């Protein structure tokens, strides 16, 4: 075998190994057997035909080069890895200084009495009123934005003085982002000639025209448990009644008894060990979620999911493709001894302020805690982690910021220039929307329609497109403001926006 | 036949520029890297592996000795192979690349290859039936893979994050 071939074969073997036992594996096996019966499949050239198909279709990323070290797989660009490392160090220092100031350990065993109390109160942690005044969040999105703004490619010459080569926005790294023609191709199903939930199900449109048929197809997809078809289907939006099941199908979540047991184990871990970050989570949810009009009802769920999330070591595996790395610590008194090295928190993720916004919308769909937890975890390791690390990935936050700025600059140049002139760089306003995937800013039904498309297109780029579309929608008002504060005010309330018409108009109905 | 890496000497880059280096201000877009194989017996080159750093297009030329009497000749093995689809953006800028012998369009191979292998001809099929040796080698490969899978244990992570029940931590470590 050529070395190239044997490397690919090894990777395929590893993928098969990982899929084994899952519902998806059984589906694939059934499909494979069915396909083999077809006359047009030639057994002798099957391997080559499949390899060729992979290359041409571009559906699967090619296996990574055998010489590439693990850090290259996390993030290929060295300067981005370095920036991520520095950012992480800042977070570690911030957490350590909080520990030292407050004389509280990072983690300790919870006394037996406290354990019992927590177990009793598990479903109503919101009623607790501990003193959290001394705790402060480890970092906020705007700190992260400053780091992204200061990212520089050492090999890229833009010159220190403003010239025609400098980017006019805040992001200065030359990542490849799509333009509107490419986005139109990518998001073809959002076009004017295709039915959409969020547009063609409004009260003025008779349901026979689109909605009824779309619901029927959705029911069929669910009946056949076809994950790939569900992903394609949901690009046109999901009917409310089918959404929970469709998302579970696309994310390959099926609540097996072992999943419920696993969640119970996580709960036990929360009860047994008290972590400093628990207080930070608690304070964050208490201060913000409990006052939020949409999310306050889910306060108790949020504590449960986030506390369990912090204990979940299965999340560690996503660091293979996340440019971030989990923080390390040593058991007390065993500093430097590798056999006592652990990750902190156990899932390797220190949460930023308002992280609960990634969980809250899911509470509308899933009421059983272990299922809610599984769905959230899968959404995190597939999509949301990209909003919190520095990487060159097309769905990473850096690319989204650059995509947003480029779209605005290219298609709304007057608005972009005006906002820059008055000291209101557009990204300073839209960053908080994108980093939270618009949770907490849009009305819930609109948010869920947006997240339908994230799942359908397996990409976060739609967040940047929506951000640009919002600016386009309010362009007339924005052209009249003369300060950053006034611009913020124009864009403060997005709760009345309808996302699908905005996206459709921006992509398909604007004269470019 | 196992693969062995061949020791080579990679010289520093030389910029190709028209005009006087001292007076012209432009940054040259073409750089040349010389690779020599000192003190090595003739070998069959299968693969060249390197890590890219912002090179957009690559050409490879080899110097070929045909015989003792004729002077050495330069042959182009690869011309303008694209490493970065958009040179102004980061795509492909720092990727690991392998170039294989069969990618070279040149039919003749330099004499420093001891056993030059001609281009593979497609195996002729016997009247619609697959070639038995090919099928058997494919089946053997698949069997080897299934053995590999069976041998490695399915490891379902139990998810312990503590050390012997203890998870008392003071501070985070920076290393």
From TrEMBL, chain A:
Pfam families: RabGAP-TBC (PF00566). It comes from the Eukaryota. PROSITE patterns: TBC_RABGAP. SMART domains: TBC. Gene3D superfamilies: Ypt/Rab-GAP domain of gyp1p, domain 3. InterPro entries: Rab-GAP-TBC_dom, Rab-GAP_TBC_sf, TBC1D19. Residues 237-458 form the Rab-GAP TBC domain. SUPFAM superfamilies: Ypt/Rab-GAP domain of gyp1p. This is TBC1 domain family member 19.
Automatic annotation (TrEMBL), chain B:
GO terms for cellular component: nucleoplasm. It comes from the Eukaryota. InterPro entries: Nicolin-1. PANTHER family: NICOLIN 1, NICOLIN-1. This is Nicolin 1, tubulin polyglutamylase complex subunit.
